[in-house]
Design a protein that fits this description.
The chain is α+β, with helices and mostly antiparallel strands. The protein folds into 2 domains: about 80 residues, Glutaredoxin (3-Layer(aba) Sandwich), CATH 3.40.30.10; about 120 residues, Glutathione S-transferase Yfyf (Class Pi), Chain A, domain 2. Helix content is about 50%, strand content about 5%. It contains 9 helices and 4 strands, in the order βαβαββααααααα. The chain has a 4-stranded mixed sheet with strand order 2-1-3-4, with helices on one face. The site of glutathione has 12 residues, from helix 1.
C-alpha cells in the first residue's frame, strides 16, 4: 500500500511539517494532499480525509477508503512510520537515547502552549521581538535545556550534528520550533543557534521551507502580528 499525507499550508502548519520532513529526510515515498486553511477545498474534503478534521493525517492505502489505514495525531503518525519502516532509524538505536528522544517528542506534542500560541509558525515572515511573553521565555528556556541535554549526552558522541547524532523523529518534532525561532528571534545561546542552522539545512526541512516561502495565502488566525493592509481606495 502507498502512503499519502494530508497536510495544511506549509507556511503555517507546524503539525503537518513534522511527519512531512521526517518522511523526506528518510527518503520514504509518499503522496501529499494539501488542503489550504480557510479554503473551499478544505471545507469540501477535510471530513472525508481526516477523522479529527485536522491535519496531518496519514493514509496507508487509498485516502478516505474504509479499507485503508488512517492515522492521525502527529506522534501516532511518527510511530506508525517507525513500525512500517523498521529498516530506518526513525528513533535512535541506543535504548537510552531512544527513551529520551521519545520523551522529548511527547513533551513537544503535549506542551509548550505559550510558545505555540504566541509565536505561531509563519515561515515566510519576520517578527523579531514579537511574542516574547514570560511564559514563552520559560518554554524557550526549556527547549534550549532539552536540546543541550540531548546533544551533550548523545549527539556529541557522534560526528552527526542532530540531537541524537543522525536526524531522527525528535529533530522532526522540534523543526517547527526552529522555524518559530527564525521568525521571532528570541535570544538563544550559541549552541542552540548552531542546532537551528543544522535543522534548517537538512534536505527535508529545506525542501519544506522553500515551498512554504512560495505560498501567498494569508490566514488571519495565524497572523496576530500582521499589520492590516490599507484599503486600496480611501473609504467614501
Ligand atoms: N494534536 C494534533 C494537532 C493537529 C492540529 O491542530 N492541526 C491544525 C493545523 S497545524 C489544524 O488542523 N487546524 C485546523 C482546525 O483545527 O480546524 C496533532 O498532533 O496532529
Amino acid at each position: 500500500m502507498s502512503l499519502t499525507l494530508v497536510i495544511g499550508n506549509k507556511n503555517y502548519s507546524s503539525w503537518s511539517m513534522r511527519p512531512w520532513v521526517l518522511l523526506k529526510q528518510f527518503g520514504i515515498a509518499f503522496e501529499e494532499i494539501m488542503l489550504k486553511f480557510e479554503s473551499a477545498e478544505w471545507s469540501d474534503r477535510i471530513a472525508s480525509l481526516a477523522p479529527t478534521k485536522r491535519v496531518p493525517t496519514l493514509w496507508d492505502g487509498e485516502p478516505g477508503a474504509g479499507t485503508s489505514i488512517a492515522v492521525w495525531e502527529t506522534i501516532a503518525i511518527i510511530e506508525y512510520i517507525a513500525d512500517r519502516f523498521p529498516q530506518h532509524d526513525i528513533w535512535p538505536k541506543d535504548a537510552a537515547a531512544r527513551a529520551m528522544a521519545r520523551a522529548i517528542a511527547a513533551e513537544m506534542h503535549a506542551g509548550f502552549q505559550s510558545l505555540r500560541s504566541n509565536m505561531p509558525m509563519n515561515i515566510r515572515s519576520h517578527y523579531p521581538g514579537k511574542g516574547m511573553l514570560p511564559g514563552v521565555a520559560g518554554d524557550t528556556a526549556r527547549v534550549e535545556s532539552i536540546w543541550r541535554a540531548a546533544r551533550e549526552r548523545f549527539g556529541s558522541r557522534t560526528e552527526a550534528p542532530f540531537l541524537f547524532g543522525q536526524f531522527c523523529a525528535a529533530d522532526a518534532m522540534f523543526a517547527p520550533v526552529v522555524m518559530r525561532f527564525a521568525t521571532y528571534k528570541p535570544p538563544l545561546c550559541t549552541a542552540s543557534l548552531r542546532y537551528c542552522e543544522v535543522v534548517k539545512a537538512a534536505p527535508g526541512v529545506a525542501a519544506w521551507i522553500a515551498e512554504a516561502r512560495r505560498e501567498t495565502e494569508f490566514v488571519g488566525f495565524d497572523e496576530p502580528y500582521a499589520t492590516p493592509a490599507p484599503p486600496a481606495t480611501p473609504p467614501a
